[in-house]
Request: fold
Amino acid sequence: MTRLSTPAGSILGSSLEAEGTTIHRFLGIPYAAPPSGANRFRAPVPSARWGGVLDCTAAGPAAPQNLENPAPPGATPRTWSEDGCLNLNIWAPPADGSARPVMVWIHGGAYLLGANSDAMYDGARLAAVAGVVLVSINYRLGALGFLQVADLLGPGYEDSSNVALLDQLEALRWVRRNIGAFGGDPENVTVFGESAGAAAIGTLLGMPASEGLFRRAIMQSGTAERYRGPEESARISAEFLELCGLDRASARELLTLPVGRLLQAQAALEKRLAAKTYAVPLPFQPTAGTPSLPLPPLDSIRHGLNSGVDLLAGTNLNEGSFAVEMRPPAPEDPGYPDRAAAVLAAARVASTQAPGYTEALARVLSREPAGKELLEAAIADSVYRQPSNRLLAARGGAAGRNFSYLFTWRSPAMGGKLGACHALEIPFVFRHLDAPEAAFLTRGKAPQSLSDTMSGAWAAFAHTGSPATAGLGWPEYGDARRTMVFDDGVRVEDDPRGGIREFFAGVRPLPAN
Reply:
């Protein structure tokens, strides 16, 4: 057991061996007061200093969520609680007299699922190899994290649609106040996340209150464009209210409804939206035009907010394969080209422009794309790759450095149908290729050398602001759009799949500064 005194109070943790290094582990540390009762739908309240010694040897609960049924292969079942969900985990190497870089992980899950206790996010190995203090946070999900109730409940709820992001900011403030006790440097914090976690980081980059809370950011399959305007958020709230059996006159009952009832309505809303998209349904997202997010994130970033933050951003080649392979076609579904056009339309590509996308993809592939291939690529580009490219373009004049990657190592799962699918890079970064949770995707065939390269690059970025290492030359993105391609081997390419980027730049040009 390891006992530590921090500004927040004394805590008891445990120790383990990872990668030949002793790692001190502290789990379930509360960074904010329970977001239940009078705190539901409100900004987080900083946790009070606790008395005595807090036992932090077991993981805390996840945020309330509809648990996946069946759970993904190899996954550890989650437990959730509205009361205790705002907690964080810390993995720290032994103190060596110097302040170590801090890496703060924000999990993904479409803003509906996930937890800092998921086995794939265990930070012991990465902390040991990287020589960093690693933190993993929980935040509110779904309706409890994103429902707009300001016009329903009045003063005090102006930012209800962004409380999940406010949770993340509060966790970063806790880190700033306390991480020195764990050997971390509060002035050298890197936030990193995947999918919704990376989208959250893209949004944080556009939130004025985030300035100064982190020095670097890594976005794995992320975007700075996942938000809604107030009108669209109000429409979603009205639908959710109806699914709860309430109306505007009875909306205050949202504050006392059992969490299970809220989750039932959430599941119904997700199902309703899933029927309208061929990509991933995203019923809950941050809202721009609110006190904490006054402008769309990309606009604020383009105008210089968080300009000094170093950024590493990238995607996987086949981000859309899960959505295509795991969603059986319905009898009423149109053909693949029409489904791809619908996905592109949601990304503001007009139906008359959709054939241009097919032509651009064909030029990149040097052949006509097959039906499923066209739909998968449309999802990957519309939801992930091109938003990442637009973020890098928006930061062209930033003071901080920009780096890009493309992950192309193909999973052997399902006969190779998934390709370099969404989330496949996570076990490479966290060095968990041998974990049961990774087995479905890696099938024991993932190259350890690639994991060594990626985790080393992520570590170097946290230390120096550059992912280059002694064995890996990684240039800045720059005008040539230099991009590191991760596969069985690694290489730098200028503007990979550039014809597709040019197509999207033509139909969705960035406004001038």
